[in-house]
């Protein structure tokens, strides 16, 4: 992987947009380049930009999120980073960006964007944040951690590693190689081993808490249970005999009371039937009247229709005069509209010549107006340009005067500060001296501060040590107390169980609940059986009512059939009369020759009644025929409806009989279920007598169930308390172990701080000597420039730099002003020439404007006399609208006139039709009234008034019918119940089960039931004990198996703990780091051979973190890394860093590397060696960036990227391929 270009904006102090092209020849030729600048100027931000573009995070800040972005420049509303890189699969461009709301500095952070694209085609490969990071890892072959270890060389960390003691090397190497996971694994193994041991101890305690019965106890319980079972059988038989006798007495008393109640109900029913006698007679007459209700309805409907037609005719005759008047008015309005259309057409024809002339003049005026506007615009443009040139000439003249004054002032300043001319050449040496002085002073301050901090930390740590020791003792004591309390609770729980177990008690409770459910089901079946009787009786009554309704419909059907036969006979008669009328009409010509008083040639009669009324007779016969056919159709339809109703009642009767059969089957099924359940619960009495026995057993079972449930609930509560206490004990155990680990950690930290304190004191002495020497060297360099006292070296260098910059700036400014003076003089001459030319053009253009305006005014005067100046289009549109409105009105009036004529015609047709319909309906009504009167007489009604009086509303008639049916049904039911109860009473009395009284039997039953409950309770307790002992034995076997399995699991973790486990993770960490370090040394030796053939690194197998160096130039002498010089240490540490880079990148070739530290402490010879080493890496094709503020690097490395601080906390970048993009920065 190789970085090709980098582009970023607004990151830390590097505000604005910047671009760096690493493909420039300068980078390719040298292979090594330096990123230089003062401390804090923003050098490392360039590396942050690369990490940010690829992975969305940096080594110093971590991931950038929507809630935190510390890398965005202050007072900026957006930032981004973009890198183009080459990998094995191609060239790609990866971009990361984030902005604030509306890109304002004070806005809220928005979601970041991250995408990767093909650099060659620009095609977006992925644009979702999480998926883009995964895509980058796939394309580069490295995640973020591997990338930072592969491309950002940790030479400085390895330099610390080489100089560190054996105990301090492990954490340093862990931080460099990222092997923290091995410490975590070691500590997790230690914790898991302790957890498995605690689980084993808990299981052993649980096994010890299970109590089993001995062989003698089991035999005694079996004997006791057998004796109790025999006693229960005898007592149950005696109790059942007495209970049967008591139920026999109670059954007799119940039946006697039922017979008496039946007699009372019969007397009450007779009284109700006598009171209903008058309503029964009314019901009979209403039912007779209902049989001819259809005929009466036809007559009543015909009367209403005749009355409605008469009213409609009267209304239409009133409308006739108004309709005639509307026709006349519509005709008059139509004629007036025709005259308006002709007038509008003539006006349009007269106005068209004037409109055409006006349009011609308007076109001429528009053309001339455009010409005037164009000439005026040209004149105004010339005038504005003239004024602009005059203004510009004045500005140029003023600026030229200012330039000459400034030039004189700068030349005078240079004469006064001539000594600063040589400052530029000496400033580089002064800065180099400052760069050497500053790190020395920083090391002195850092050492002194470190001593103070370490002493303070030791004091604080002493207090933490005291607290940790007290906490460890208190935690262990609390754990011991809680464990003893838990043991006492488990002993109490075992005593309360009394040899039983919760699982056995729960099984007994389930048995009681099941028995209770079965008894409830039996009670429910008894209740269900009692509900079958009223349902069966109800269906019988419904069947009887439907059969009566069927009889009524049958009578109506016969009557309707008779009416249909009568109507069919009448139809035959009417058809015969119609044929006779046709024959009469065939002799119409002969009838016309008949003369009154003269004999007929056919019959000889002197009177001729058919001569004038034949046509009228024919019409009446046709009407009668149509009416007869209509009546036949209506009565046929009524007969079919009655036939369907009869079929429906038959279906209803069948369905109800089917329902009756189903209820009987359900009643029988319910009885079978009840017998089966009685057998299951052990009730051995007849089903008819078992209901009170079941209810009593139900109460006893519920009582036993509730008592056992309460006991189980108490035991479960205690068991839950034990589990909670076990959790508390486990937590206290964890707390004790945590306190012990903390005590060990605090002790280790105290020992480490004491070592750090000794090292810092030694460093402080060396740093103080180095600072004094550097200060003397710095004073010799600044004295020639008037600096006598050195309070703040950095401020002195800054002041000298400002003086040097100011001299160079003024020198550059003088040259610039001289050039500007020559340019100003040339500009003045050019402006004078342009002013003369524009003045002549303006005078000529003004004359053209005046001539065009005169011609335009003449055309406008002529146009005012045509159409009074009105717009010809508007005038033409007005005339056309007038004509169109007249035509629209004519069309509307034409439609209105036609509609009025059509309405009059329809009205006259309707009046004639209504007259004819009234005559026809009067004839039909007369015939129907005659038929209805005949039916009234047949049914025994004197007249229509008597019929109407006998009618009842349907609702009232149905209520009376229901009342009558109810009385009949109750009579049948009472008689049936009376017979059934007397028969049942006789059967029960014949059984003669006892001669004792009810009270004596009840007392003996209660006494025997109490004795039986005691015996059964003893049997249940014994059975529970035996069952609980069996369950406890099974549980004991399971627990023993679990203990053996847990012992095996514990031994497995104990073995792993012996290998790698430790409380602080040190055991596995040192082992893994030894392997990692050995592999890394192998990679480092390959890199070292490319840089020099003198050294080879050697790993000590007995001391995993010890490292030696073989010096091939000294006959293979083995040297300690602590004896290496500064340059040699740099070479070794760089080789280790490159080895780590190669190891981290695995199979990925990394061709871009960055070294961000390690040069500040090298002397001149060591620095020379280090730079030679870096130059040698170019042969492998790698591009290495060195980040440092050491001045000597600028002399030895020719390619620089310089980061220079500016005012306001900003910095700028200069160097090959570096470009500031104006889009954001400017």
UniProtKB/TrEMBL annotation:
Residue ranges of domain Rad50/SbcC-type AAA in the record: 6-203
Alphabetized GO MF terms: ATP hydrolysis activity
Keyword Coiled coil among record annotations: yes
Region (Disordered): 975-1002, 1205-1226
GO terms classed as biological process: double-strand break repair
Key words, A-Z: Coiled coil
Pfam (any one): AAA_23
Name of protein: SMC domain protein
Species of origin: Chlorobaculum parvum (strain DSM 263 / NCIMB 8327)
